[in-house]
Amino acid sequence: MNDLLRHTSLLGLRPILCTLAFAVAALCSASSARAPLGVMMEPVINQVPYDENDINLWPVSWFLAEPGEVYTYGVGYPSDPVHNIYNIENDTDHTMTGLALRIVGTAVETGNDDPEYIFDRGAPTEAIFGDVTGDQQVISDIFQKITISKDRKFILLTDGEIPPGARFTDISLSKLIRGRNGRGNVNVESYFAVDSSFLTDDKYFPGDVNGDGVLNHADSELARRLSKDALDLTPSQIAAGDFNNTGKIDSRDVKEIQRLIREKHHTSKGDRDWEHLREKRVGCNPPKSGPQ
Q1: Is 213 within 8 Å of 204 (Cβ atoms)?
Q2: What is the model's pLDDT at position 2?
Q3: Fewer CB near the last or first residue (10 Å), C or N of the chain?
């Protein structure tokens, strides 16, 4: 009799257990749907020895002739093999002291042998910059400082030099990751619009946010406005005004610029002693520890 009752009780529990199992499976499925796949990208900017027979070479001037100019290109997952085998030569008259990349939208590939892209600027993306290789750093033997913004869609490489005639790699590693904010639609092949530009030291120095070669109240006022609306920030302004390595200009940076201005005005030897700021390479602040 007791065996019969136990058997009957188990039969009654079976539908309940099955219902719970289906509910758990549905929750897991819904959770996966809310976290679509995204793409993490990692630029590789390394020196390339000179080789007169190197035919896989792109001159910088094809894309960017002057510092601060912006060139938009497509990159994503899987990595473009053309970018990975072509190197870039600095054929300009400028010594490049920084490179800036910003993810600004999506890209649709339209070509085959020579890929071309249609860009949708402002489209939501699940793309970020980060450590694809897992070695705890972005790869570059040229630039010693790497700054990545909080949303990880802007990366600034500084504290290094690419002189005229020098060559460097144009590799972009990538991998699929879980989405961070539940937006976007990443498929097996997904590409994104990235704005690129290069910096030089001859115009901007720490605190000189407006790039006029003088540190004064105009710089602190511009920094204050940019701290309210980061959409108008240029890479050069970030390099000159981002003292705490956040990838933007915030209230702490504004206070630091104001401090530098006060320091300048209180010096008794005039502007000649202020030339040390021009000699200080833009972006030489020690990088903050934390995820790259």
Answers
A1: no
A2: 46
A3: N
Measured CA to CA in angstroms, residue 142 lies from 139, 233, 241, 261 at distances of 9, 24, 22, 31
pLDDT in tens, 100-158: 899 999 998 776 555 678 899 888 888 999 999 988 878 899 998 888 888 899 898 98
What is the model's pLDDT at position 181?
47
Which residue range forms the structural domain that includes residue 115? 37-199
Q: Evaluate whether 205 touches 214 at the Cβ level (below 8 Å).
A: no
What is d(CA 254, CA 170) in angstroms, rounded to the nearest whole number? 34
What is the C-alpha radius of gyration for the chain, rounded to an integer number of angstroms? 25
Instruction: Give yes or no for residue 272 having a pLDDT over 50.
Output: no
Looking at the structure of the chain, the number of domains it has is: 3
Residues 151 and 98 in one domain: yes
> Can the peptide bond before residue 78 be classed as cis, meaning omega within 30 degrees of 0?
yes
- Given 171, 199, 227, which residue is the final one in a domain? 199
Name the DSSP letter for residue 89.
E
**Tokens 């976007």 sit at which residue?**
184
**Sign, Cα dihedral of 217, 223, 224, 226:** positive
226: tokens are 């940019």
**Length of the chain counted residue by residue:** 292
Nearest CA-CA partner of 145 in 282, 4, 37, 266? 282
Judgement on whether residues 140 and 252 belong to the same structural domain of the protein? no
Q: Are residues 9 and 50 in the same domain?
A: no
Q: In what order do the strands lie in the sheet with 47-48?
A: 47-48, 167-169, 87-89, 57-59
Residues 65, 67, 72, 73: is their CA dihedral positive or negative?
A: positive
Question: Does residue 167 share a domain with residue 59?
Answer: yes
Helix spans in the chain (H): 2-34, 81-85, 217-228, 235-241, 251-266, 276-279
Give the single-character DSSP code of 214: -
pTM above 0.85, yes or no: no
pLDDT reading at 284 higher than 60? no
